[in-house]
Write a structure and sequence with these properties.
This protein is of the alpha+beta class. It is built from four helices and five strands; from the N terminus they run H-E-H-H-H-E-E-E-E.
Amino acid sequence: MGKRKRLAADRMKEARKDVAFAKLTNIPSSPRKMRLVADLIRGQEVFRALGILKFSNKEAAARLEKMLRSAVANWEAKNDRKAESGELYISTIYVNPAPMLKRLRPAPQGRGYRIRKRANHVYLIVDEIANKPKKD
């Protein structure tokens, strides 16, 4: 690794020290299905979002609930105190597509239909409500 790249990596590490985040990679469901659930909790208070995810009947909700609990635990570890109700909110959550697995399914008359098995990556940042930017 060159000097310029190492310095940039060190700056990014320093910036991440204060941020409580969690990420999931290579989740075997389509990004579109995951975004439906992520949109439900974007910008919500953490404990309200946990309630939404607990009672959602989508498969992606269980994965996001576990991830959100991990992000809260990371925040608690970095701040050396327990999170209280109304203190944290989901500042950022986004879903990106992961590399696709391409398979062939037998089709009539000797053909093969392409099957695309999609996957996604999810990134979630938790922050204090006191730090929340005001909307004009």
